[in-house]
Design a protein that fits this description.
It is a single chain. The chain is mainly alpha-helical and 210 residues long. Helix content is 73%, strand content 0%. It has helices spanning 5-30, 37-44, 48-54, 58-82, 87-104, 106-121, 126-153, 161-180, 201-206.
């Protein structure tokens, strides 16, 4: 019996996910520049010609991985922006969710590590880099606006909102990279340890999240 269109889609999606997961491991361990298409195909256990059916180049795989990771981060930022809660609460909630993601998502940790390495190693086109840079800026702009409104609310420390957003995201990315570089299971620090960098004492007490 011939497969249905839905079954074919599931097979294609599973194969694409296999390619992405394999490439992510190799990019993270060997670096983007040192990883070849043939390495990805061999590690995934598929023919190189089949890999080209899904992705025309190593750059296309890399861009898809980074784009997906950035979109997940941006979705988190948008969700926090749209919450019907005080801004101090939203910032604490964002920290809690992102720390939990670092702890539970191997893909998120490794993608953060890969992006950090590829910033210096990836030989991708200017158009692709511009596309990723534009998407990367979204979460920074959203968090800067949240910090600005939190200052008006009286819950956020007095500092330039964009600088707070940069500190926020580099703290998250740095922690993800640190844990991605270690193979053993480790417990993350309590997210509330970094909260005082962003929130005033009254907000920390009022918006405590367990």
């Amino acid at each position: 019996m011939a497969r249905t269109a839905e079954q074919n889609k599931k097979i294609r999606d599973a194969k694409r996910e296999l390619i992405l997961t394999t490439a992510l491991d190799l990019f993270s361990l060997k670096g983007y520049y040192s990883t070849r298409i043939s390495d990805i195909a061999e590690s995934a256990g598929i023919a190189q010609g089949l890999l080209y059916y899904y992705y025309p180049s190593k750059e296309a795989i890399y861009v898809d991985l980074v784009d997906d990771a950035l979109e997940r981060i941006n979705d988190t930022a948008r969700f926090v922006r749209d919450m019907d809660k005080p801004y101090g609460y939203r910032i604490l909630y964002a920290l809690k969710v992102l720390f939990k993601t670092i702890e539970t998502s191997y893909r998120f940790r490794q993608t953060c590590r890969m992006i950090s390495q590829a910033t210096y190693q990836a030989d991708i086109s200017e158009d692709a880099q511009a596309q990723l840079d534009k998407k990367r800026d979204v979460s920074y702009r959203i968090m800067a606006e949240i910090f600005r409104k939190g200052q008006l609310e009286g819950s956020v420390v007095d500092a330039e909102p964009l600088e707070l957003a940069i500190l926020f995201w580099t703290s998250v990315n740095g922690l993800a990279i640190y844990y991605a570089s270690r193979d053993i299971a480790m417990t993350l620090p309590d997210y509330r340890l970094v909260a005082p960098m962003f929130l005033l004492h009254n907000a920390l007490e009022e918006y405590a999240i367990e």
